[in-house]
Amino acid sequence: MRDLFYDLVKRNGMAVSIYLMVAVSLWVFLLIILPQLTMLDYSFRFNLPPGKIGGPEDVYTLDQYRYFFQGSGSSGGLNTLDIGILFKTLMSAVFVTVFDLLICYPVAFVLAKSSTGAKARLLVLALIVPYWINEILRAFAFRILFGSTGVINEVGMGLGLFDSPVDFIREDVALYAGLAYAYILLMIFPLYNAIESLDRNQIEAAQDMGANWWQVHSKVVIPYAKPGIASGMTMVFMLTAGALAAPQILGGPSNLWFTQLVYQWFNSGGNWPRGSAYAMILLVVCIALVLLTMRIFKVSIGEIKR
Amino acid sequence: MKIKSPTAVIPGIYLALFFAYLFGPLIIMVITAFNSSNFPRVSPWECFTTDWFGKLVADDKLIEGLGNSLLIGVGVVAVAIPIGLAAAIMLSQVGPRLRASLYTIFIAPILVPGVVIGLSTLIFWDRIGTFFNAPYESFFYDGTFLTIFGQVTFIAAYSMLVFLSRIQRFDTTLTEAALDMGATPTQAFVKVLLPFMAPAIGSATVLAFLASLENYNTTVFTIVSSSTFTTVLSSKVRYGLDPSISAVAVIIISITLIGAIIYECRNRYHSKGWSLVVAERPVLKVATHPGSVAAVLGLLAIGAVLFIQNHDSSACTAQILEDKRAIQQKLMEQQSLDTPAVTPAPTTPKLGPLGGEDTGGTSAPSPFGGNAGSIFSPENLSGSAGSTPSTSDAPTSPPSSGVGGIFAPENLTGSGAN
């Protein structure tokens, strides 16, 4: 820390170095680390009324985590409801991530390799514009689209695909479509950046040596773009698993997203320690899953950049 | 001319489908904002109407939320930009090992779910407040401050990424040259590095402000009892679908498109090819200047607002209502024919209230049809002086129902004047 500061002073002068150190330390400690530690601390406590906080009953406990695994019954039965919701959230997030990768990879490839100059810039702008529309409004658009009198149902019934309106909301189709839609941009840009820097000659060399299009992608482009793919997938997965607005608006009445459980414990449940414990569980499980996947596909964290 | 093989058009078709997925839902949402149906839908199409915009402007909660959002956005920009800049500069100056670990810490807030950030911010400041025995009105419990802290946590990381991509292209020999020529390190920073970063500061500011405006996951925890534009919108969507939400989307999409068009025009205008084209053509040069494009778009926007305020669809909605009643009448007659003599009398009153309710709901005078035309009348602008009641602009309709009068100065001074 002291060496770092001396180094900064030598290059930027005293006033600027103080600004750099103060700004970064405030951010890292006051906004990032300490709040997370407080939440961790909270998750190991009982839910006490304000008067008893700091009193003799305010001791550390694993009770909140135990609730996640065993529910309210102390008989040792599993809390299948909450565990099931976590599992379903993670599986859905994986599904949405893979879906996004599949639809975005061709777009990123075409953008990076066939478009040049003004056309490419216009396409990129067209990608960004929907991203600036409020998250709530994007979810609302899918609600209209997939509603029982929505366009999809009208068209489907008009074409005779189905006789009565399909409840896409209950079937979670609207939720998946909306979530995949929400994070398309975060998948495309890392892919685009990675593929764009690939030398065209490599593709042409592979083609000259008789590789078909599938081999070009699986042997040349995808291995090269692996950091971009990893970075896009990590971001989409984390944001999907942590999404709150889309599940609240598009989720079926009986299907909850794990973040909604956190929200419920916090707001309607009024149980902050349990909400904290659930948030910690979500965070730890998501990070573990991302690290595990990166280990399997042999990508290191350092390679992940935007 | 080269004839494309069938496989060569596949990328084009794929791109078209992809952009249909990207824009289709937005286009449909925009269309629903102009349908007079009480539920946001495209079909059956009832009437072209602009009443939903009027309903929007009259929504005090939404306007209040927007005000809070703008305040929070400014606060977030003011805190996040200096932090992001400092983080980027620090990353660019440290050794590779420290750089890697610092980068991991700095990037973490982007990957941590927004829910977790919001929750931990709320808990942390609550605990600090309890520690200092702060009263409940202090800023430790204030939604605006908490939301700024919560949002800065990750928006600083966004802006850091913007600064990083710029600072990577910085030629450090410039600073060294300044130092050689006798500048102090501070002077070199202020006179060389900061001006170089200026464009990035501009784009990071826009990015941070927009990210703050649209954030929901963090804000919904940290806002406590206050509200922002997004949280109001979210509760509106959850408690009932209503085309006025589509009207919000129309406004936001329009602003976004205008911004995008001006941005693109600016890029083209400053491109090399274009400056050669317009070198000999002063008229074209003025016409394609981003400023004139912005002026044209601004005029179009004003025209659209005027149109929305003056458009009157009450005749059409009344007609639709009439049709509905006719259908209902037919059904009732059908029903009384189907069940002859058993209970002919009670059927009519039973269905009666339904029809009546419908009438009350939709045939009420259109909020914009009534007195919207008078918004720009001179009386309105001068009328606010003193306690002149607003009788001058709409003598026929009570002030409370005149949505169009929201822009009238009297309404801004509060209802006390009336």
TrEMBL record, chain A:
Gene3D superfamilies per UniProt: MetI-like (1.10.3720.10)
ABC transmembrane type-1 domain mapped to chain residues: 86-293
Keywords for this protein: Cell membrane, Membrane, Transmembrane, Transmembrane helix, Transport
Highest taxon above the source species: Bacteria
Principal location class: membrane
UniProt keyword Membrane, yes or no: yes
Cross-referenced InterPro entries: MetI-like, MetI-like_sf
PANTHER family in alphabetical order: INNER MEMBRANE ABC TRANSPORTER PERMEASE PROTEIN YDCU-RELATED (PTHR42929:SF1), INNER MEMBRANE ABC TRANSPORTER PERMEASE PROTEIN YDCU-RELATED-RELATED (PTHR42929)
Family: Belongs to the binding-protein-dependent transport system permease family. CysTW subfamily.
Protein's name in the database: ABC transporter permease
TrEMBL record, chain B:
Domain of life, per lineage: Bacteria
Topological category with respect to the lipid bilayer: Multi-pass membrane protein
Any Pfam family the entry gives: BPD_transp_1
Gene Ontology biological process terms from the UniProt entry: transmembrane transport
Tagged with keyword Cell membrane: yes
Key words, A-Z: Cell membrane, Membrane, Transmembrane, Transmembrane helix, Transport
CC annotations in GO: plasma membrane
Residue stretches making up the ABC transmembrane type-1 domain: 66-263
Low complexity bias: start-end ranges: 339-349, 382-401
Location of this chain's protein in the cell: Cell membrane
Region annotation Disordered: where it falls in the sequence: 334-418
Stored InterPro entries: Bact_Polyamine_Transport, MetI-like, MetI-like_sf
Main location: membrane
Membrane spanning stretches: 12-34, 70-91, 103-125, 145-167, 188-211, 245-265, 286-308
Keyword Cytoplasm among record annotations: no
PANTHER family: PUTRESCINE TRANSPORT SYSTEM PERMEASE PROTEIN POTI
Family listed: Belongs to the binding-protein-dependent transport system permease family. CysTW subfamily.
Protein's UniProt name: ABC transporter permease
